[in-house]
Amino acid sequence: MNFDDKNEMNNFIKLLSKLPGLGPRSGRRAALAIIKQKEKLLIPLKDAFNDISEKIVVCEICNNIDLKSPCAICSNQNKDMNIICVVEEISDLWAIERAAVFKGYYHILGGVLNALDGVGPDQLNIEKLGQRIKQNKVQEIILALSATIDGQTTLHFLIDYLEDFNVKVTKLAHGIPIGGELDYLDDGTLTQAILSRTAAD
Amino acid sequence: MNFEDIGIVMSVRRHGESSGILELITKSHGRHLGLVRGYQSKSNKSILQPGSTINFNWRSRLSEHLGVFTFELHTSRSLNLMKNKFAILVLQNLISHLRLLPERENITEIYSQTESVLDQSHENFELVKSFILWELMYLKEIGYGIDISECAVTKSKDNLKYVSPKSGRAVTQEIGLPYKDKLLEIPEFMRDAKYTDRDDLLKGLLLTEFFLKRDVYKPLQLKVTSFRASLYKLINSFET
């Protein structure tokens, strides 16, 4: 097969090579593996892609993606109505859900403030957060944002914004990760860990 | 092409899956960009936070190419910056001004002054004061400096109170008083470095903002970032 030709096969490889972790060479390998297993992989993948592309929607409440809106998390009545955890992206929501430690609802901002890239408060999903707090009489907002300059800029902005809502605002702690060795930690993390030390009881 | 230098991280943009394009304000090579391989790694991301100073090596086959950075941390300011609302807003404002500098044009004064502003982050009002003075220096270094050394009319060096928005030159209180609504007020700390209060900082921000908007941002068809308004609001929220 000539890889310069513009045919369906090349188009398939080209699309695969755009996926995270894949390049043109690994895209070709993945394409070959899929095609070789037509019944086991190619057809189920085609069906799965069709289903996803038809059914996937953005949740009107939290901005999560799911097959229905409100999403499975927002329509779960067993969660704690009083707490909302604010995260930057869907991947952050998935990470916290994986940990299975948080029992409240989520709110996805869709990024962080970054003036240089033109991301201001209007580009983020902030107004809707205010509406949710008012409507559901939320008592606590957890700001689960990255420990980066842009993440913390957004955090300070949200703290100011939430001042008018009579709600408890908390943020994630910074410190030593599980399995982390002190020798390999950066100065900032180590300093913060010492400053935020707790009583050993 | 290959050189070593020291620089302050301004921003990193993701490039491909694991690389990033790093933007620095350097000591001897001005605002400089280059590729960082493995930017997505945990250790590199923590080093390449805006405001940190790094020692770096830049190499490229031809000087006009983007080139590749290798680096190690010199000074991390992330923690001090992140926990202080004033510091984080000053940093964001500094970066948005630095971004407008021409690439690879060395302005040593801007590098050293930027570093000294970032190292001020322990006292909020002093930090903002040094940031406003930094903006005056920035305007001067890029050719739009304002002259508050003497009165444009009487040549007197005393009692300077206003700046003309047209000429960018100072006038004394007596000369400026009849036109005070059209003039910009000079904050006290620009005459007496020891003096700092809330109203003075607000006057300072308005003064530099006028010239930055007119001479720097507007010709480039840009607007000053929302972080400036946030800084103004934050200072304004303090009791006098």
Quick take:
The complex is a heterodimer of chains A (201) and B (240). Chain A is α/β, with parallel strands linked by helices and 201 residues long. Chain A is built from seven helices and six strands, in the order H-H-H-E-E-E-H-E-H-E-H-E-H.
Give the SSE map.
The complex is a heterodimer of chains A (201) and B (240).
Chain A lengths: L7 H9 L7 H13 L1 H18 L1 E2 L6 E2 L13 E8 L2 H10 L4 E5 L18 H10 L3 E5 L4 H14 L5 E4 L15 H9 L6
Parallel strand pairs in A: 3-4, 3-5, 5-6
Antiparallel strand pairs in A: 1-2
Helix pairs in contact in A: 1-2, 2-3
Chain B lengths: L1 E14 L3 E8 L4 E6 L5 H6 L5 E7 L8 E8 L2 H5 L2 H14 L9 H11 L5 H18 L5 E5 L8 E4 L5 E4 H4 L7 E2 L12 H20 L8 H11 L4
Parallel strand pairs in B: 6-8
Antiparallel strand pairs in B: 1-2, 1-4, 2-3, 4-5, 7-8, 7-9
3D structure, described in words:
- The complex is a heterodimer of chains A (201) and B (240).
- By secondary structure, chain A is of the alpha/beta class.
- Chain A is built from seven helices and six strands, in the order αααβββαβαβαβα.
- In chain A, α1 (8-16) packs across α2 and α2 (24-36) packs across α3.
- Chain A is globular, with a radius of gyration of 22 Å.
- Chain A starts with 7 loop residues before the first helix and ends in a 6-residue tail after the last helix.
- In chain A, 22% of the residues are buried.
- Chain B has 240 residues and is an alpha+beta fold.
- In chain B, α4 packs antiparallel against α5.
- Chain B is elongated.
- Chains A and B meet through α6 and α7 of A and α1, α2, α3 and α8 of B.
